[in-house]
């Protein structure tokens, strides 16, 4: 099983590519719903957490909040 741990400001890769051609998304809100922003065209999408974890492939960069 792939580790599905993610946090605010992480950069994640989704299973499907965005229509703009980018596959990297930044997590900008975490709660019952997760809002992600495309790093290619800056479009943001809000998904229920369950759907997001199903569609997320992996965490590419973890936010280093110190």
If you had to describe this structure to a student in words, what would you say it looks like?
The structure is a single chain. Strands 4-3-2-1-5 form a five-stranded antiparallel sheet. 11% of the residues lie in helices and 42% in strands. It is built from one helix and five strands. A hairpin with a 5-residue loop joins strand 3 (33-38) and strand 4 (44-48). The model has no long low-confidence stretch (mean pLDDT 89). It is mainly beta. The chain has one domain.
Layout: helices, strands, pairs:
Blueprint: E1 11-14, E2 24-30, E3 33-38, E4 44-48, H1 49-55, E5 56-61
Antiparallel strand pairs: 1-2, 1-5, 2-3, 3-4
Keywords:
66 residues, mainly beta, 5-stranded antiparallel beta sheet, 11% helix, globular
How many separate domains? 1
Major β-sheet profile: 5 strands, antiparallel
Mean pLDDT: 89
The radius of gyration over CA amounts to: 11 Å
SSE class: mainly beta
Write down how many β-strands occur, each being a DSSP E stretch of 2 or more residues. 5
Termini separation comes to: 29 Å
Low-pLDDT stretches: none
Query: What is the helix fraction of residues, given as a range?
Result: 10-25%
What's the SSE pattern?
Answer: EEEEHE
């Amino acid at each position: 099983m792939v580790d599905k741990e993610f946090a605010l400001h992480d950069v994640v890769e989704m299973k499907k590519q965005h229509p703009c051609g980018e596959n990297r998304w930044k997590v900008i809100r975490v709660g019952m719903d997760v809002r992600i922003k495309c790093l290619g065209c800056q479009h943001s999408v809000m998904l229920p957490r369950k759907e997001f974890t199903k569609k997320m492939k992996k965490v590419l960069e973890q936010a280093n909040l110190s």
